[in-house]
Amino acid sequence: MKTLLLARHAKSDWGDPAIDDFDRPLNARGLRDAPAMAHRLVDEGGGVRLVVSSPALRAITTAREYATAFGLEPVERPELYAASARTILAAAAALPDEASVAMLVGHNPGMSDAVAELTGEFVELPTCAVVTCAVDIDSWAELIEGSGRLELVRAPRS
After folding, report:
1. Per the confidence metrics, is the pTM higher than 0.90?
2. Looking at CB atoms within 10 Å, which of 32, 56, 89, 138 has the fewest?
């Protein structure tokens, strides 16, 4: 059994139109929500063993909060920036098997679409939402569309 957490980055700052999308930082709400959600996951006993993130500033900043809360360093994967559901699930299928509980941090619409592809249930993820999916597999390489079960959806306002 594997557990995959799919997370959308925290709220980003749109205040400066000169900043490239990739380089947008978190806004004040995002800077509050990301550590709060990270502590919530730890309090729930999530046991995350690996955090993999898009390298975009808003995503990796969010991922660092999660990783730090679990005593980890996030791993950046360029393919997760603005990724499709297919790319996100391929990244999950490439995870190391020793990480039985792993988190991917990225962007919408890809993250919401990945939840739907994996579980058959569509959830529109607000910023800083984290979805937990149980996957009845022995190896991440076995992960395929429809192989997961939606267990829990968390959002900062829920």
Report:
1. yes
2. 138
Before 25, cis peptide (omega within 30)?
no
Phi-psi region of 143 (alpha: psi -120 to 50; beta: other; left: phi over 0): beta
Place of tokens 């079960």: 149
H-state helical runs in 15-123: 28-43, 57-69, 85-93, 110-119
Write phi, then psi, for 3 (nearest 5 degrees): -125, 125
Predicted confidence (pLDDT) per residue in 115-125, tens digit = 999 999 999 99
Q: How far apart are CA 123 and CA 97, in angstroms?
A: 27
Tokens representing 30 are 């995002």
Give the Cα separation of 157 and 127 in Å (integer): 10
